[in-house]
C-alpha cells in the first residue's frame, strides 16, 4: 500500500513538474507578452519577467518593443520637373501597443515596409529635383507624416524617416556639373569686376592726389623702374607717359607762351634761324606791263646788256 502511495506521489510530482514547465514563460525586458485564451485576446498584456499560462489553453505571443531600423528599397520615379531618379530611404519605428500590433495587422513589419515604399514614390512625384537634393528635411517630415497616419491604428509609431541617396542619370550629372561650373565662373567674374571697380576708385583717388602734387608722378615712375630693375633683367624698357609731357608743358606756361610769340615774330620778319630768304614772287602780267611803261618826262631804260656795253664805251671815249 505504501509503495502504491509513493508511486502515485511521484507520478503527481512528475505531472506537476511537466505542467509547470509547459506553463512557465519568460518575457524579456524589451518584450511584451500578448495572451490568447482559446483564441480570444486577454485584457492584460504580460510584462517582462516570469509568467505562467494555461497549457493547451493559452497561447503567448511575444512582441518586440525596440526601435526597428528598416531600409526602404530604392524606388524609381519621375519628379515633378520630369527627371528620372532613383531614391532609397531608411525608416525607424517601434511598437507602442503590443495588442494592436498583433490583432490589427497580420505582419506589422511588412505593412510598414510597403507603406514606406508607396509613400516614397508619392513624395518623388510631388517634389522637384532641387527639393530632393537640397530640401530633404522637409521631405523627410512629409514622408514621416504619410507613413505615420495609417500606422497609428496598427499600434506602431514612426520615429524618423530619412532619404539616404538620390541617384541621377549620367547625363543629368554632367548637366549639373556644367551648371555648377558656369555658376562658379559667373561668381568669379563678378568678384573680378568688383575688384576692378574698387581698384579704379583707388586709382582715381591716387590720380587726384598726384594732380595736386605733380612731383608724385615722377616719384611713382622711379618706383616702377626700381621694381622692374629688381628682377635682374638685362634690358630695361622705360615707358615715357604722355601725361608727363603734358605735365612738363603745364609746368612753365609763361616760358612756352613767350617762345611761341618770339617764333611767330621771327617768322614774320624772316630772321628765324634755319630759314633762307625766298625770292619775291613775280608780279602778274598786268602788273609787269604797268611797271615797264615809262612815266611822262622820263627816259626809257635801256636793256641791261646794251646799257652795260654803252657805259663801257663812253668810258673809253
Draw up the topology in text.
Elements: H1 2-23, E1 24-27, E2 31-37, E3 40-46, E4 49-52, E5 58-64, E6 68-78, E7 84-95, H2 98-103, H3 108-126, H4 129-134, H5 136-151, E8 156-167, H6 170-212, H7 215-229, H8 242-251, H9 253-269, H10 285-292, H11 304-316
Antiparallel strand pairs: 1-4, 2-3, 2-5, 6-7, 7-8
Helix pairs in contact: 3-5
Describe the structure.
With 317 residues, the protein is α+β, with helices and mostly antiparallel strands. The protein has eleven helices and eight strands. The strands form three sheets. Strands 3-2-5 form a three-stranded antiparallel beta sheet. Strands 6-7-8 form a three-stranded antiparallel beta sheet. The chain has a two-stranded antiparallel ribbon with strand order 1-4. Helix 3 (108-126) packs across helix 5 (136-151). It is rod-shaped and about 175 Å long.
In short:
The chain contains eleven helices and eight strands. The protein has 317 residues and is α+β, with helices and mostly antiparallel strands.
Key descriptive features of the protein:
317 residues, three-stranded antiparallel β-sheet, alpha+beta
CA-based shape? rod-shaped
Binned, the helix content reads 55-70%
Q: How are the strands of the largest sheet arranged?
A: 3-2-5
> Got a strand count?
8
Amino acid at each position: 500500500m505504501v509503495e502504491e502511495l509513493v508511486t502515485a506521489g511521484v507520478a503527481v510530482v512528475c505531472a506537476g513538474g511537466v505542467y509547470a514547465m509547459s506553463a512557465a514563460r519568460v518575457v524579456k525586458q524589451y518584450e511584451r507578452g500578448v495572451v490568447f485564451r482559446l483564441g480570444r485576446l486577454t485584457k492584460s498584456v504580460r510584462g517582462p519577467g516570469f509568467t505562467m499560462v494555461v497549457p493547451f489553453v493559452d497561447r503567448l505571443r511575444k512582441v518586440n518593443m525596440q526601435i526597428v531600423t528598416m531600409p526602404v528599397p530604392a524606388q524609381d520615379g519621375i519628379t515633378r520637373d520630369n527627371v528620372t531618379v532613383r531614391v532609397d530611404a531608411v525608416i525607424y519605428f517601434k511598437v507602442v501597443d503590443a495588442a494592436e500590433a498583433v490583432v490589427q495587422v497580420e505582419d506589422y513589419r511588412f505593412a510598414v515596409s510597403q507603406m514606406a515604399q508607396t509613400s516614397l514614390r508619392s513624395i518623388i512625384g510631388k517634389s522637384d529635383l532641387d527639393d530632393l537634393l537640397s530640401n530633404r528635411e522637409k521631405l523627410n517630415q512629409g514622408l514621416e507624416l504619410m507613413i505615420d497616419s495609417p500606422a497609428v491604428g496598427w499600434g506602431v509609431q514612426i520615429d524618423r524617416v530619412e532619404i539616404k541617396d538620390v541617384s541621377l542619370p549620367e547625363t543629368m550629372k554632367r548637366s549639373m556639373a556644367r551648371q555648377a561650373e558656369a555658376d562658379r565662373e559667373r561668381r568669379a567674374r563678378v568678384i573680378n569686376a568688383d575688384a576692378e571697380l574698387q581698384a579704379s576708385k583707388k586709382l582715381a583717388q591716387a590720380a587726384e592726389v598726384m594732380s595736386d602734387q605733380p612731383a608724385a608722378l615722377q616719384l611713382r615712375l622711379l618706383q616702377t623702374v626700381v621694381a622692374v630693375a629688381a628682377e635682374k633683367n638685362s634690358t630695361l624698357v622705360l615707358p615715357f607717359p604722355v601725361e608727363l609731357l603734358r605735365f612738363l608743358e603745364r609746368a612753365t606756361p609763361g616760358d612756352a607762351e613767350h617762345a611761341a610769340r618770339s617764333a611767330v615774330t621771327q617768322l614774320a620778319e624772316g630772321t628765324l634761324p634755319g630759314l633762307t630768304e625766298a625770292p619775291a614772287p613775280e608780279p602778274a602780267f598786268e602788273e609787269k606791263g604797268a611797271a615797264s611803261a615809262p612815266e611822262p618826262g622820263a627816259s626809257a631804260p635801256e636793256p641791261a646788256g646794251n646799257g652795260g656795253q654803252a657805259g663801257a664805251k663812253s668810258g673809253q671815249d
